[in-house]
Amino acid sequence: MFAAAVAAERRVPCVLLERKARLGSKVLMTANGRCNFTRDISPDEFIRDVGPCGSWVAKAVRECPPRQIIRGFKSLGMAVRRMADGRMFPADGRAATVVHAFGDLLRDEGVPVATNCAVAGIVPRHGGGFIVKTANFDLLAENVLVATGGVSYPKTGSVGDGQNFAKALGHRIVPYRPGLIGLETSDRRVTSLAGRRFEDGRAKVIDSSGRVLLDWRGEVDCESFGLSGAAVYNCQRFIEHAGLEDWTIEVWFGHERLSFRNLRPRPLKESIVTIGGVSLDDVDPRTMMSKKVKGLYFAGEVLDIDGPTGGYNLTLAFATARKAVASLSL
Ligand SMILES: Cc1cc2nc3c(=O)[nH]c(=O)nc-3n(C[C@H](O)[C@H](O)[C@H](O)COP(=O)(O)OP(=O)(O)OC[C@H]3O[C@@H](n4cnc5c(N)ncnc54)[C@H](O)[C@@H]3O)c2cc1C
Questions:
Q1: Which of 265, 283, 315 finishes a domain?
Q2: For the chain, which end, N or C, has fewer CB atoms within 10 Å of the first or last residue's CB respectively?
Q3: From atom 10 of ligand 1, which residue's Cα is the shortest distance away?
Q4: CA of 17 to the centre of ligand 1 (A)
Q5: pTM score, two decimals?
Q6: Are 289 and 172 found together in one domain?
Q7: Is residue 37 within 8 Å of residue 90, measured between CB atoms?
Q8: Taking every pair of C-alpha atoms in the chain, what is the biggest distance, in angstroms?
Q9: Which pLDDT tens digit goes with each residue over 131-170?
């Protein structure tokens, strides 16, 4: 949606093909339906916070920094709300407002949108361009931007098609792992409080030698399966990226301060973001174009990029989408 909006702005003719009956199914779920669409911080802070993929996305983020995204959302007529920590939401607290704003923009700009239209394959043509195959028609395209998302919450339409197309065209796929997901424990001190949220919680990751590797203040939630909430999610993502095998998580919530070792994460399909995807080695960060297939671009979670909770992942999708369209409209 963001890419198509940028394409319209730059007068790049494009068609948006969407597997689901409506646009933005995952966006509607974000932040419990409230959509934390970015964070009011500088590009340097954003790149630092994002962690492992920070240097790869730096150029894209500097050219589409969070504050430009905020201005862009306002220019669509959307009132926005800034939280004390910089997280940005639509003022009415409805993710649907974001999806409608993009839907309206695409309508007003006359961008053709085909919903219920799953791309089944992308075939490079001799002499350049592609045949984009769907169940009902083939489309000839000079360039293709694959922005099909990660593999979590597959009911929203992100089922890994883009990674499969990329693989078939010779790109490496970094194995999928859950990012930003709850941790399982049957400890009654947690499960007996299922449904309780502790906004002033805290979680720490500690390695086997007792070193504190991450200390995150934020929400800790108790669930029937164990622990969730922003502080737990960010610790889980850190553990996954660091490849830690023997670790302890210390969590504070209410009057409790508990330690757990090597908890199992919830399944990938429930994760907020997918770690892994199209290898960054095979994509040029200056253009988002594949290094293997000319004219093929990638943006968003289909790539092996991910950030912490707090508006980072949508911002990554926006910035990489903008970069791809900007580079093909040069
Ligand atoms: C519960 C939850 C809460 C979240 N909250 C936040 C938040 O508050 N802030 C934040 O920044 N991030 C949040 N995220 C993460 C964020 O939603 C994603 O990182 C982001 O949506 C990724 O954008 P994307 O465009 O790459 O992929 P997606 O948003 O997944 O969009 C991909 C689209 O491609 C379509 N598609 C897939 N395959 C095909 C095909 N073959 N043909 C045609 N169309 C296809 C899909 O149907 C889908 O509409 C949350 C995620 C979840 C699951």
A1: 265
A2: C
A3: 311
A4: 14
A5: 0.97
A6: yes
A7: yes
A8: 67
A9: 999 999 999 999 999 999 999 999 999 999 999 999 999 9
